[in-house]
Amino acid sequence: MTTLKATLKDDLTTAMKARDELRSSTLRLTLTAIAKEEVAGKSARELSDDEVLTVIAKEAKKRREAAEAFDQGGRAESAAKERAEGEILDAYLPKQLSDDELQVIVAEAVAEARAAGAEGPKAMGAVMKIVKPKVAGLADGGRVSAAVKSLLAG
User: Fold this and answer.
1) What is the distance between the alpha carbons of residues 95 and 70, in angstroms, rounded to a whole number?
2) Alpha carbon distance 63, 66 (integer Å)
3) What sign does the dihedral 138-142-148-151 (CA atoms) show?
4) pLDDT tens series, the chain, 154 aa
5) Which of 45, 77, 118, 138 could cross-link with 126 by S-S, CB 3.0 to 4.6 Å?
């Protein structure tokens, strides 16, 4: 079975042969981030596919934040490049939950937390604890907490 890291390396080779500069540089940066993560800590190790996904998600988030910053700074060209890199990375991530799917999961968690006696501000933490493992990698943390807040306020 091919690991996600091996797939990234194969895709980098393909992109280089095709002279696809954007894809090559994006994959190169991502593989560097993965390598850094592998040597971080006490001993070097091979990352699992889940850990590699976490690194890719972090890299994709950096691109989204950079694109927003460039937009605010009036640098549309740089923002477009960051967005394009983000899209390349998004292709390796699991499909994100739609707003409706997220609402359903959050609503179930709110009901579960209330049944366990969580009320008021404490309910937020209790609900997040239930929701987080269910949506790990499938929804951005900001989206999740916004959905939880709106349902608890509802």
Assistant:
1) 26
2) 5
3) negative
4) 688 999 999 999 999 999 999 999 999 999 999 999 999 888 888 888 888 888 998 999 899 999 999 999 999 999 999 999 999 998 998 888 888 888 888 888 888 888 888 777 678 888 888 888 888 778 877 888 888 888 877 6
5) 118
What is the C-alpha separation between 20 and 18, in angstroms, rounded? 5
Cα–Cα distance measured from residue 69 to residue 35, given in angstroms and rounded to the nearest whole number = 27
Enter the tokens of residue 45.
């190790």
Residue 116 CA to residue 93 CA, distance in Å, equals 33
- How many other CB atoms sit within 10 Å of the CB of residue 121? 8
User: Vertex 134, ends 57 and 66: CA angle to 5°?
Assistant: 25
Measured CA to CA in angstroms, residue 145 lies from 15, 24, 150 at distances of: 37, 34, 9
- Confidence (pLDDT) at 12: 94
Q: For the range 21-24, what are the long-range contacts, defined as Cβ-Cβ under 8 Å and sequence gap of 24 or more?
A: 22/81, 22/84, 22/85, 22/88, 23/88
35, with CB counted inside 10 A (0-12, 13-18, 19+), is: middle
Q: Which amino acid is at 24?
A: S
Full-model pTM: 0.74
